[in-house]
Predict the structure of Coproporphyrinogen-III oxidase.
Amino acid sequence: MNAPFIPTPSLIDVARRMVPRYTSYPTAPHFSPAVTAETYGGWLEKVRDRGEAISLYLHVPFCRTICNYCGCTTKAALRDDPVRAYAASIHDEIALFAERLGPVEVSHIHWGGGTPNILPPDCFEALVRDLGNRFRFRPDMEHAIELDPRHVTAEGARRLADLGINRASLGVQTLDAAVQKAIARIQPLPVVEASFAHLRNAGITAINADLMYGLPLQTLDTIRDTAERVLALEPSRFAIFGYAHVPWMKAHQRLIDEAALPDAVERIRQAALAREILERGGYVEIGIDHFALPDDALTLAQDERRLHRNFQGYTDDAATTLIGIGASSISRTPWGFAQNAPDNHGWRRAIESGRLPTVRGKAYEGDDLLRAAVIEDLLCAFEVDLAEVAARHGASVDGFEDDVRRLAPLVNAGWVEVRGSRVAIRRHRHEIARVVAAEFDAYLGRGGRHSTAV
Ligand SMILES: C[S@@+](CC[C@H](N)C(=O)[O-])C[C@H]1O[C@@H](n2cnc3c(N)ncnc32)[C@H](O)[C@@H]1O
Ligand code: SF4
């Protein structure tokens, strides 16, 4: 009998595949209203009984202006009033879940957005103190915040440090003037340099820089120039995000001229160039889109197979429970995911009536946790031992037969290696990790529209 014909895919076709980013599994399009405030409340009580440390994510969905490329859940607030009103509701939400959790230990806090540094200083301080009064901050707790460099001042950085902030992520994206104009985010190099200096002077030395590729008018030259200039600022970590163009979800992205967007081939080249420059600069590739210095905690976690993927990207935080606070935030517990009302009004209404603001989620069922572990291994280590993961979950490796068979074209192309029960993505093709992970996603094709793989 003839061997079956296995096509060899082109890299462009694979890079163009629309697949999830797998910051959770199952992914958000498969959440449903079956998970209610009562379900989530029950999970919180079980978390309290386990007595393990938890992590907190606080979402601040406001920015002074909206950048054309932005894919985050945020809106423009020119005045402080809506931000203050939002902070007041956050206190009420904290009270609601603290009541169910009790004074558990906290290992990690992350403020994201939007632009968390839009919170007036007194509001931010009151929120940190509220959390500190209700929970036990671990002495080595990581307290991280996403900052817009255009709004980082010397005074603001000092206040953040005084409140225990010990890591900051700065959105740099690009330093090219023409690209900045095309994305409506004017942020020249001196602004970025000043934000690094203010943070360091205040004692916040763990600084991450976010860069992007695939933006309108971006070229290999502008990518090189930006990467080299930011390398000179010596951040501890980089995140390199490919611009996710999803105008069907984010209407303001229609302001981006699609004709000025780099095509799939160019995106692959830009991602490869950024990676090459950062690796030459001494940074180690962490998962699909992060880079860190060799002695960074994330690099050590990767070396010791303790790296995890969560909604913020990659982390060395081992907490199994992450409480999402604020409109649209997603919480992860050992029993499943729960998401808050996505709009500020619905979220506030629930809190004002004394209810947890959960509107949907996903309770783990069937082989969800098994597949989540396979996908996390692929995205964190670029390899997985299916038999080992199956054994850990009391399952049989035979359940992956179809998934492994679907990998054949990628194996044929020489990008993925399958040896026994071990699946590994070859080093020169790490960029297709999301596509490999997608072959193990039992929900794919059942709804949800995603961005391109590269
Ligand atoms: C929520 S933003 C927070 C940072 C802060 N608001 C700022 O812009 O400086 C986090 C990061 O997400 C990335 N990002 C935003 N929109 C994106 C998109 N459409 N595609 C890919 N990455 C995106 C940017 O690199 C940004 O720095
Ligand atoms: S990229 Fe940052 S500053 Fe720009 S709109 Fe998005 S969250 Fe706001």
In short: The longest helix spans residues 81-101.
